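Re: the request from the purification team.
They wanted to know what the chain is likely to look like in 3D before they choose a buffer screen. I agreed to run a prediction and write the result into the notebook, where they can find it.
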Amino acid sequence: MAVSRPTPFCLIVVAFLITAAAAADSYTNHTVGGDAGWFFNSGTRKTSADYTAWAAKQTFHLGDYLVFNTTTNQTVIQTYNKTTYGSCVMDDSLDTDTFQYAGGSDDFGSAVIIAVPLTIEGTQYYFSDAEDGAQCHKGMAFQIKVSHGLGLPPSLNQPPPPAYVPPPAPANEDQVPPVTVVTSPSKSYGMRIRADFFRVVLVLLVSILFLA
């Protein structure tokens, strides 16, 4: 009986499935722009990579990281606000939808590595707002779509901290603590008891003498 051998097509399909399964079982660090990094040449007014094209070739999941190899001449802005992304500046952004990971440093040209975790599903945007957004308008920007994948790892899936409870107010040093006063029967009350006692004894003595 002849033994059938797998065709090259079957081997390709199996290899693809193994690769997909391996990718689904791990998290990925995506180096933005690949070897070109996240840079803007102020002389040529060009970016070091086509970031839109780079992002289109990637698959992003919760728990992955975007790694920006860059310098302090660029900034890294993450936003979920399409309007902010389109304006290339943070002027009208909210604290809840836009975050700055680098920028505002006076030490220009220093190499930095910025790792941004992907913690929310859906579409999000990245850009550099350096030079009042000029770098962004020249291509220093891209958008990605994050899928669920394995979900967030425990290191990124921490519960929010408990609500702040103010400490109790300090005791007022000028306030005198209440004093418990123990009262005793008055003298007049004691005298009244003794008078009633003698009156009873006198009545008993008179009764005894009368009966005798």
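For the purification team: The CA atoms of residues 10 and 16 lie 10 Å apart.
Please add any questions underneath this entry.
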